[in-house]
Automatic annotation (TrEMBL):
It comes from the Bacteria. It is a single-pass membrane protein; Single-pass type II membrane protein. The chain crosses the membrane at residues 20-41. It is found in: Cell membrane. It comes from Paraburkholderia nemoris. Belongs to the ExbD/TolR family. The lineage of its organism: Bacteria, Pseudomonadati, Pseudomonadota, Betaproteobacteria, Burkholderiales. Keywords: Cell membrane, Membrane, Protein transport, Transmembrane, Transmembrane helix, Transport. This is Biopolymer transport protein ExbD. The keyword Lipoprotein does not apply.
Length: 141
């Protein structure tokens, strides 16, 4: 600890050093208080929460799978169809009870225009449920 003793006439000089000891003391006290109170606050009512797993989409026999390749060709359950035939088949499928789901598989390089045509055809035919099939992420890493 340093101390100024008996300098000649410089009693009005401003001390430029800040004493940080009280600040450190206060911070340590706050740290101890937080360390003690946090475990008390985190106690809650013990409940058993339900667990849920995400199951991959199971293709039902009554679902329709429409694939669109990168060239914009439409495939109805793996058979090539044109846009007119696609719309006609969707109209027939839309009146079935229960109405089948439509699963659209689009190549990742397919222009959105071709996928949009399938969605528009489903809308015009009155299909109420259209799903997009994607590749699940690779596991591991």
């Amino acid at each position: 600890m340093a101390m100024n003793v008996g300098q000649d006439g410089d009693e009005d000089e401003v001390i430029a050093v800040i004493n940080t000891t009280p600040l450190v003391d206060v911070m340590l006290v706050l740290l101890i208080i937080f360390l003690i109170t946090i475990p008390v606050v985190t106690h809650t009512v013990p409940v058993r929460l339900p667990t849920e797993t995400v199951n991959p989409l199971q293709t039902k026999p009554d679902s329709i799978e429409i694939a669109v390749n990168k060239d914009g060709d439409f495939f109805w359950n793996e058979k090539l169809v044109d846009a007119t035939t696609l719309l006609a088949r969707l109209k027939v499928a839309s009146v079935k009870l229960p109405q089948p789901e439509v699963h659209v598989r689009g190549d990742q390089t397919t222009r959105y225009e071709f996928i949009g045509r399938v969605v528009t055809a489903c809308e015009r035919a009155g299909i109420s449920k259209v799903s997009f099939i994607t590749q699940p992420p690779a596991r591991g890493g």
